[in-house]
Amino acid sequence: MSNLHNINKMDRVYLCLAHMSGNEMKYIKEAFDTNWVVPLGPNVDAFEAELEKFAGEGKKVVALASGTAAVHLAMVALGIGKGDEVICQSFTFAASCNPALYLGATPVFVGSEDKTWNIDPNKLEDAIKHRMQTTGKKPKAIVPVYMYGMPAYIDDLMEIANRYDIPVIEDSAEAFGSLYKGRMTGTFGRFGIMSFNGNKMITTSGGGALICPDEATKKKVMYYATQAREPKPYYLHTEVGFNYRMSNVCAGIGRGQMTIIDDHLAHHRRIARMYADAFAGHDVIKMHLEPESYMNPNYWLSTITFETPDSQRPYAPGEEIEPCGIVMKAMDALAAQGIESRPLWRPMHTQPLYKDAPAFVDGTCERLFRKGLCLPSGPCVTDNDVERVIAILKDCVEK
User: What is the pLDDT of residue 37?
Assistant: First the structure.
């Protein structure tokens, strides 16, 4: 059993509950003792430096109020505005694409391939060509997302993006610590997104960060994140800015969390292997694992699919999409035992908010949503918890 479990275990089993290292209070106390309890400060500077070292590749990092703020500021830095189009992965959480609406741009949704569940390179190029022919201009950015910590086929995506000279914003919010050919996700594109929400690999209670290509870009992003205030002894503004900086107190939590990130990563990966071993060869329950040896996901959440005739039924365009019966049955069975689970993300192109947005899909995202389930995976999940989940799911399918 992992050494992370020397904590008071709650009765309820959560997907990914925040786990404190014990070092966080040292940095928080330091912030209070020095009265640095506002945005910016020594903890923010130190946390950014630690994140830059963690990401590698000479990247620079700006700590922010949320991962959503990071997506928004990446789009601001790229000059995205009214009338522009942004290619977004459909199979994701709304935070990946909503910032395009903030700026008056239009998301163009692209479906996923069924190996990594991430944006399909072939459909990506189809979407670029179609939008160029239709609108007479290129999309202003591409936003791939690494679902549940699984890297995409990044080389293929970057080859297409570079060929068409379209900047990439890697949404690595769920993939903190995931590797592609030994390199951190979030460091391949122009920008990368980190999230430190309470249920992520590390937390600052909320918070996120933007990975930037160089120091000049970092300074520009910091300028927008601090209300676009000009460097004058009085308040002067020539552009619209935002109040997006991370507080020095929250950054102190992040510094404490960084002392145990290796333990968290090892734990999530070990839990995933427990599920994988238990469901290996199962006729109905299939564990989602990395399709290539050069992908090393963090397994933020372990995910499964139920392969039944109902779950594989083709999705009819215009049909109201819902998780299939076995998914809901499994969730109910787990919930009855105090265990949290949840369906996979509902594709953005099926959301009422985005019903009129262009979409280049083939039904893969819809099928994944209908048949998939997220399982408890966080640092507070014990081996016994995993064994209970496995037993409940197998019993549910057999019945």
Answer: 80
pLDDT of residue 393: 98
SS3 sequence of the chain: CCHHHCCCCCCCECCCCCCCCCCHHHHHHHHHHCCCCCECCHHHHHHHHHHHHHHCCCCEEEEECEHHHHHHHHHHHCCCCCCCEEEEECCCCHHHCHHHHHCCCEEEEECECCCCCCECHHHHHHHHHHHHHHHCCCCCEEECECHHHCCCCHHHHHHHHHHCCCCEEEECCCCCCCEECCEECCCCCCEEEEECCCCCCCCECEEEEEEECCHHHHHHHHHHHECCECCCCCCCECCCCCECECEHHHHHHHHHHHCCHHHHHHHHHHHHHHHHHHHCCCCCEEECCCCCCCEECCCCCEEEEECCCCCCCCCCCCCCCCCCHHHHHHHHHHHHCCECCEECCCCHHHCHHHCCCCEECCCHHHHHHHHEEEECCCCCCCHHHHHHHHHHHHHHHHC
b/e map 102-126, b = 16+ CB within 10 Å: ebebbbbbbbbbeebbbbbbebbbe
Average pLDDT, integer, range 255-276: 97
CA atoms within 13 A of residue 139's CA, in its CB half-sphere: 31
Using CA atoms, how far apart are residues 30 and 129, in angstroms rounded to an integer?
54
Give 160-189 pLDDT, tens digit per residue.
Answer: 999 999 999 999 999 999 999 999 999 999
> What domains appear along the chain, each with residue ranges and CATH number?
24-258 (3.40.640.10), 261-398 (3.90.1150.10)
* Residue 7: per-residue pLDDT: 40
Lowest mean pLDDT among 9-23, 150-164, 175-189: 9-23
CA distance 228 to 242: 7
pLDDT in tens, 79-107: 999 999 999 999 999 999 999 999 999 99
Query: What is the chain's mean pLDDT, rounded?
Result: 94
Confidence of residue 299 (pLDDT cuts 50, 70, 90): very high
